[in-house]
Amino acid sequence: MSRRTSRPRRSTGTAAPAPRTMADAPCPCGLPATYAECCGRLHAGAAAATCEALMRSRYTAFVVQDAAYLLRTWHPDTRPPTVDFDPGLRWTGLEILAVTEGSPFHTTGTVTFRAHYTDDGRPDSLHERSRFVRHESHWVYATAVFVE
Ligand SMILES: [Zn+2]
């Protein structure tokens, strides 16, 4: 996923009480864990065991605007010089649709996903198959196989 994005989700006076910190909040990637237990571990330096884990952590990095994480998990051949976040975009959910290879025993893999967002309040989604490769023993994002 290479799309520009927005600032982190904020709860603004809705029914659910806001978590005190991002670490305690449900992970934006959708797994039933807190950010600190899930993608936050990877953002803090833990290695992603699978392509799917890396994909989830990169989605979450767009949500929390961790440009450094996005850049260090991008293959050097395709990595942009910087990542900019579009202030009008809010990422609202991730669906993993299919995974090929990408296990701890593979060197390549793909993840097909739909990432939901609002663009200036208008709901939309990004449907992409991303290709991941191992680079210096770590999974990195290589390129999009297709994007719709
Ligand atoms: Zn997560």
UniProtKB/TrEMBL annotation:
Residues 50-143 form the YchJ-like middle NTF2-like domain. Residues 1-10 have a biased composition (Basic residues). Residues 1-21 are annotated as: Disordered. It comes from the Bacteria. InterPro entries: NTF2-like_dom_sf (IPR032710), SEC_C_motif (IPR004027), YchJ-like (IPR023006), YchJ-like_M (IPR048469). Pfam families: SEC-C, YchJ_M-like. Belongs to the UPF0225 family. This is UPF0225 protein HEB29_004971. It comes from Streptomyces fulvorobeus.
